[in-house]
């Protein structure tokens, strides 16, 4: 009796490749959210699907050190390192929030070698704001 030929599509015999390294992303969007307590850097493709992200908290900065510019710089560098390996060359930068890490994160993005098409500040600003509380009676 002849030996059964194993299928290459089966999980046991074929080597599974990583899908993350297979997709090449030439252009993306870098979102920097800088609050007073943390800085979050998210990198997406043009359609808005997240490719990589990092924050000062995930870079092992805890407490008051999370809000420092150095923590923001480290978070941006860590998030960008993965997408540069996937072949990203150009990016748009959206910066949101009033935090200390805004400029430091932008400096780290500039240093990474990615060509920036534009930098936009998308901090939400109230046009008229919420209704103030009623006057206090003393």
UniProtKB/TrEMBL annotation:
Localization per record = Plastid, Chloroplast
Q: Which InterPro entries match?
A: Ribosomal_uS11, Ribosomal_uS11_bac-type, Ribosomal_uS11_CS, Ribosomal_uS11_sf
Q: Which GO terms describe its molecular function?
A: rRNA binding; structural constituent of ribosome
> Which GO BP annotation is one of this protein's?
translation
Q: Does the keyword Disulfide bond apply?
A: no
Tell me the keywords, alphabetical order.
Answer: Chloroplast, Plastid, Ribonucleoprotein, Ribosomal protein, RNA-binding, rRNA-binding
Instruction: Note one Pfam family from the annotation.
Output: Ribosomal_S11
Instruction: Specify the superkingdom.
Output: Eukaryota
Query: Which family is this sequence assigned to?
Result: Belongs to the universal ribosomal protein uS11 family.
- What name does the UniProt record give this protein? Small ribosomal subunit protein uS11c
- Show the taxonomic lineage: Eukaryota, Viridiplantae, Streptophyta, Embryophyta, Tracheophyta
Q: Which gene encodes it?
A: rps11
